[in-house]
Structure formats: C-alpha cells, structure tokens
Amino acid sequence: MELLLLGLLAALVWKLYQLKRSPHDAPLRSVTLCLVCAALSYPVAMPGGASGVDTVAGHGTAKLIQNVLLLLAVHFLMCFYLYSSADEGAGRRRARKEAAVVAVVAVAITVAAESVPREVFAGSFSTADMTIPQIAFFYGGAGLYLTYALGMACRWTRRYARMSRRPHSTGLWMAAVGLGAMAAACAIRAVIVAVRWADVDVPERLMAAVAFLLVASILLFAAGITYSGARARISSLRLWLRHRRDHRRLAPLWELLAEAYPQNVLRPASPAALDRWRARGVHRRYHRRIVECRDGLVDISPYLLDEDDSAVLGIDSAELAARLRRASARIGEGLPAPRRAVPLAMAMGSDRQSDVTQLIAVSDALRDAA
Questions:
Q1: ∠ Cα 35 100 175 (to 5°)
Q2: Cβ-based neighbours of 34, under 8 Å, separated by 6 or more
Q3: How far apart are the C-alpha atoms of 362 and 95, rounded to whole Å?
C-alpha cells in the first residue's frame, strides 16, 4: 500500500508541476484531478485514516468517501480523453453527460450506505454481508461504474498509443495495460458481489489475488502516465551531468586563457540577484566557458602560429597544449603579438561538438602536463 501511494504521489507531483506551467490546459487539469482524487482515497482507506474519519463522522464514512473519490478519479480520467478529442465542443458536452452519470452513481451508493445501520456497513469488502441488498448495491454499483469508465479509458488510451511514437507510445501502452487490468479487477469484484449476494462463498485467495491485481495495475498506470516525462527528465539530467563534467574538464584551458586575457571573461547581464543566480546555472556556465575559450584562442593565435601556419590543423592536443604554454609565457613577459589574430581551424571538424571535443582534449593535455 505504501509503494502504491508513493507511486501515485510521484505521478501527482509531476502533473502538478506541468499544470503550473500550463494552468489553462483542460486535459492536463483532468489528469491532475484524477491523481488528486486517487491519492486522497488511499489515506482514507488506510487503517489509521479510516479509523480517524469513522471516529469523527461515524462508522463506514471513510469507506463511502474512498469509493466516491475513486468514482471521481475515473470520471476525471474519462474527461481527459474527452477534452483531448478533435471536436472540443462535442467532448465538453460528453464530459457534462458523464459528470451527470457519476453524480447519479455517487448519490445512489451514498443513499444505499446511509440506509443501513452503521454497524452493518463497517466491514471491509471481504467481510461485508453481501446478502443485504444495500451493501451489495453499494459495492456492485461502484464496481460496475468503475469497470465502465476504466474500460472506456483503456480503449481510448490504446487508440492514442497506436497513433503516437516512442517514447510517448511506450508510456501509453503501459497505461492502457494498467487500465485494462483495473477494469478486469473491478469486473471480477462485481461478479464476486453478485455471487456473494446469492449467499455463495468465495475463496479468500481469489479475493486476495484480485486485490493484488488492482494494486499492480494502478502502479503500472501511474508509471505509464509519467514514463515519457520521467524519461525526458533523465535525459535532461544526463545532459546536465555531461555539461558539468565538461565544464570542469575545460578548467585548465580556461584558466590559462583567462589569465592572459581577463577581459574575455563574461559577466552576468546585470548585478541583479536574479541575473547572478541564472549565471550560476550549469548550462550557462558551460556554454559561457566554451565562448570564453574560443575567444581566448583567437586572441592568443598570433603566438601559436609558426611563420608558415595559417591554421592549427593536424596538430595533436599535446602539441597545441605545449604551444599554449609557451604563448602564455611570452604574454606574461610582455612580448608583443608577432602577427594579427586569426580564427583557428580545429582539426576534429567544424561542428560545435567537434570543437568542444578538441577544446576538452587540449585542456586535458594541459592538466596532464601540469
């Protein structure tokens, strides 16, 4: 149960972050409300939360709140697909109709729960007396609506998964399988209610297996709807780590060039605290260091080139590092530049990544020599 709640909370936090960035996105708002209702239903279902609610509001209230929250969760899940449809007007009209349906179901199970003594309604699904019509209607009615809503959501999810590309399709297929398994578990529970209403015993192992299927399917659904976002965050983290590592590896080259030409070191756009904070970002520092190294290499180029050189081509990193050290020493002695500065052609290619690769190789050579 704790693992399930953690999975739901992780998905909820991610969707709240997305909703903050796009507050007017109706489909995203529906998914977020779905996860809010699902996450709220589990503390109420836990023994501590259920006993606290029942102590304040009476026995069985926690169970009623939990089931209403689950009905709302699957309703908002349906609304996500309805708001995402091509015909926005038709989707909104269908969403209003579905809202009326879930309201009727919620009122009906509430009336059924309130029409029996609290002591009768206090049991769990496995211990409840299903021969009492109101109890059977409470569990059966909620289970049938959940089966319907989850089945429709599974159908729509599969349709979107077929239309999507990876990695989005992978997450959608995971969500579709989770929804299908949830719908199957709810349908089995509805059948169990009907069997027990006929006063036929159901093995405890079967009910435990259905409960496990429900928990596993919810976890799979939560993983599916966060898969593409989590994968994007992982890729972003990898890029952040690479830029942070390359920024550090460029330090020897940057220090040599910054000492020779301190005017090339870029400063924040303004002394404002926000600009200073942004300037400390890893990506900004990485790109700024590359620009400073390239500018420094242009300025120091007159000291690097031999008499017949027009560019530094075909020179390995160790040789270029040696030339840089000699050039830095000449600049420190105050010797004038022997020729004009020229852009340096890099031996590994003209694209940016090749440029950065050679800068890092030269910087590593400087570090090794030191």
A1: 30
A2: 73, 74, 76, 77, 80
A3: 62
The length of the chain in residues reads 370
Say how far apart CA 153 and CA 30 lie, in whole Å: 13
Closest CA relative to residue 118, chosen from 61, 50, 187, 201: 61
How far is residue 281's CA from residue 295's CA, in Å, rounded to a whole number? 21
Distances (CA, A) of 308 to 71, 305, 311, 350: 80, 8, 9, 22
| pTM reported for the whole predicted model | 0.68
Class of residue 67 by CB neighbours under 10 A (exposed 0-12, middle 13-18, buried 19+): buried
Name the 3-class secondary structure at 122: coil
CB-CB contact of 110 with 68 (8 Å): yes
Query: How buried is 142 (Cβ within 10 angstroms: 0-12 exposed, 13-18 middle, 19+ buried)?
Result: buried
Is it true that the peptide bond before 167 is cis, omega within 30 degrees of 0? yes
Place of tokens 């983290």: 237
- Residue 309 has which token pair? 């050189």
Helices and strands (H, E) in the chain, number of each type = 14, 0
Which positions of the chain have pLDDT values less than 50? 49, 310
Query: What is the model's pLDDT at position 1?
Result: 53
User: So what's the pLDDT on residue 212?
Assistant: 87
Predicted local distance difference test score (pLDDT) of residue 344: 63
Whether the CA torsion 187, 189, 190, 191 is positive or negative: it is positive
Q: Please state the separation of Cα 153 from the chain's center in Å.
A: 21
Take residue 333 and report the two structure tokens written for it: 């002695």
3-state secondary structure of 233: helix
Tokens at 261, concatenated: 């030409």
